[in-house]
Amino acid sequence: MMDSRAASAVESVFREERGLLLASLVRRFGDLDLAEEVTAEAIEAALVRWPVHGVPPKPGAWLATTARRKAIDRLRRDTTYAARLAILQVEAERAAPAPTAAPGDDLPDERLLLFFTCGHPALPAEDRIALSLRCLAGLSTPEVARAFLVPVDTMAKRIVRAKKKIREARIPFRVPDPDERPERLAGVLQVIYSIFTEGYTASSGPDLQRLDLAEEAIRLARILHKLLPAEREVTGLLALMLLIHARRGARTGPDGRMVLLADQDRGRWDRTMIEDGLALVHVALAGGPAGPYGVQAAIAALHDEAADLTTTDWPQIVALYDVLLTLTPSPIVALNRAVAVAMRDGPQAGLRLIGELADEPWLRGHHPYHAARADLLSQLGRTAEAAAAYRRALELAGTEPERAHLRRRLSSLES
User: Where is each RNA polymerase sigma factor 70 region 4 type domain found (predicted)?
Assistant: First the structure.
């Protein structure tokens, strides 16, 4: 039986260093499947050895050494496999410069090499995100499947397909050249933000937030910002995540109960993080038309600067959502705009816009859509319709705090 210290060390190393270890192994051996397998085997070895012999002084280095040895042992046993990997490794070394470190940062950018590889334009957009979420963020295949609202088997096949494409197309693990970067950078940013959103509101489980994932996404964005300081959308994404994550301490009560924005104690918001985010927003919005992440960061900044919900600058937020809809038209942006319009013009105006989204297939399976509709119906006194919408939202909600919140709303309405 593992003691609590050993279990905590394994969990911490897995959470904080798995992606870096995986990227290091991929760079050395040129094969993602091999890297994943020996990383998992090294973790299993730690679970067996550490309770008996104690946690090593440098758990990450121990795992790295163990994983490399297991990879070499496997290649020695399979000469055909080893020969194929040798060819891939030579090609990768010819194509890629040696990894560098960001100034003042002790984390090499090997993980970003893997991000850019997973964001290669040869891969379909959804495959890029799915593969990165699975391999770099450490999400399980069911968690990635839930984030995409697809069956687990479908997502497993998608991840296998992406790995096969990388292998067969011999996509190199490297940071792209400057002329390739704009095309690839959008995919990398989307991956990082997808990790953050899973951390901000978990897709399933007993907790509303997965702070480890949110903080991992912010850490990756900080590294990317150091490597690419002139990229305004990188700055915008980092600003957006900081401004949202600053509210983390007020989003749940002491009992884990979900607390909506309107009811949050804004004194518990992280003011230092907000100030950092606001400074980055100004940079992201300067020097020309803003990108989608810069616009979303500006919206988050207006929320964080307001004293309460009623004094929030809703007209400006609606205007920013209008801009965002021209940059990235999507049902979720339209839904968020509808909620902002309801705050500006009243529930009837917001409900009319939400009604226009009723035929969007994705939103029909998205519980916040039904919850927003239920809230507005409730405000208008349309109790039976509101109750039906709350029930539908309750069927779709992923975490227990969300379900508990919806049950309370429904109970209050019915009573």
Answer: 122-166
Cα torsion 334, 336, 340, 341 to 10°: value is: 20
Using alpha carbons, list the distances in angstroms from residue 399 to 78, 141, 215, 330, 392. 45, 17, 19, 24, 15
CA-wise closest residue to 373 among 238, 269, 364: 364
Residues 398, 414: Cα–Cα separation, whole Å:
23
Q: Which CATH superfamily is domain 330-415 in?
A: Tetratricopeptide repeat domain (1.25.40.10)
pTM for the whole structure: 0.77
Nearest Cα neighbor of 16 from 225, 219, 210 is 219
> Which residues partner with 205 through β-bridges?
399
Can you read off the two tokens belonging to residue 169? 């197309």
- Alpha carbon distance 364, 383 (integer Å): 20
pLDDT, tens digit, 9 for 90 and up, residues 194-247: 889 988 998 888 999 989 889 988 988 998 898 789 999 999 999 999 999 999
Tell me which residue has tokens 């990894």.
99
Q: Which residue, 198, 85, 86, is CA-closest to 133?
A: 198
The one-letter amino acid code at 333 reads V
How far out from the chain centre does Cα 170 lie? 27
Q: If DSSP codes are grouped into helix, strand and coil, which group holds residue 205?
A: strand
Which H/E stretch holds residue 343? Answer: helix 331-345
Nearest C-alpha neighbor of 185 from the set 149, 143, 225, 215: 225
Spans of all domains in the chain: 1-95, 108-228, 330-415
Q: How far is CA 216 from the centre of its chain?
A: 9
The string of pLDDT tens digits covering residues 333-387 is: 999 999 999 999 999 999 999 999 999 988 989 999 999 999 999 999 999 999 9
Residues 26 and 72: their CA atoms lie apart, in Å, by: 13
367 token code pair = 């519980």
